[in-house]
Amino acid sequence: IMKRKCLAFAFSIMVITGSAQKIQIKKGVILKDKEPIAKLIGEAKSTQETHLSIVASNDKPMMIIDEVNVEFRSFFQENFSFYKIKFPTLSKSLTTYMQLGGKTGGSEKKMLETLYDSIGSDFLTKDGLNAGLVENFIVKKDDSEKIKNDTAYIKELVKMGREKLSIPVSNREKNAKIKL
Q1: pLDDT category, 14, cuts 50, 70, 90?
Q2: Per residue in 66-86, pLDDT tens?
Q3: Widest Cα–Cα separation across the chain
Q4: How far is CA 5 from the centre of its chain?
Q5: Is the overall model pTM greater than 0.85, yes or no?
Q6: Cβ atoms 55, 38 nearer than 8 A
Q7: Taking the CA atoms of the chain, what radius of gyration do you get in angstroms?
Q8: What backbone torsions phi and psi does residue 62 show, to the nearest 5 degrees?
Q9: Region 134-151: what's the mean pLDDT?
């Protein structure tokens, strides 16, 4: 019985790996199974904000990815970032905390692979975007309200912290602790 389970597991891994599509980027052209499907404009680097566009062969943008860094300029709160992803050909967009390209940011290829894994292996073809897969992705990954609420909440915490620290030390109670 154990041999059968191991054999079945090994076979399923072979099927999954064998059917996976290979994504490549060569000189700004996105290749899927060595066939050109779109162009990639921009760069993704972990040291700066990402601004990428995926455009069709007729140069119409199909997908625009912009990373937004929120800076609070406070030692109370670390900065954070999120992505705004627009699908102009579908008139759709989302804002997400999703890690594109891994935890440390990364390359254009890693970002593209993450999108293929998250949206679906056929979301981008030489014929354009798969509207159904993109719609499902937006429903599952749109964090617009959460980002809006988190940003407002953190800004309020930072403001309260600054107000508490602006009280002169001589006016504070002896051995008092600052509570936010």
Answers
A1: very low
A2: 888 777 665 555 667 788 999
A3: 77
A4: 37
A5: no
A6: yes
A7: 23
A8: -100, -30
A9: 88
Question: Measured between alpha carbons, how far is 39 from 83 in angstroms, rounded to an integer?
Answer: 20
Q: How crowded is the C-beta side of 166, counted as CA atoms within 13 Å?
A: 6
Whether residue 133 contacts residue 119, with contact meaning beta carbons closer than 8 Å, is answered with yes
d(CA 126, CA 144): 30
Helix 108-119 vs helix 131-141: crossing angle, to nearest 10: 90
Higher per-residue confidence, 78 vs 124: 124
Q: Give the tokens for residue 107.
A: 């390359």
Identify whether the C-beta of residue 93 lies closer than 8 Å to the C-beta of residue 85: yes
**Dihedral pair phi/psi, residue 84, rounded to 5°:** -105, 120
**Six-digit token string for 135:** 């719609």
CA distance linking residue 32 with residue 29, whole number of Å: 10
* Both tokens assigned to 9: 């597991």
Q: Where are the beta strands (DSSP E) in 27-104?
A: 29-32, 35-43, 51-55, 61-70, 80-87, 92-96
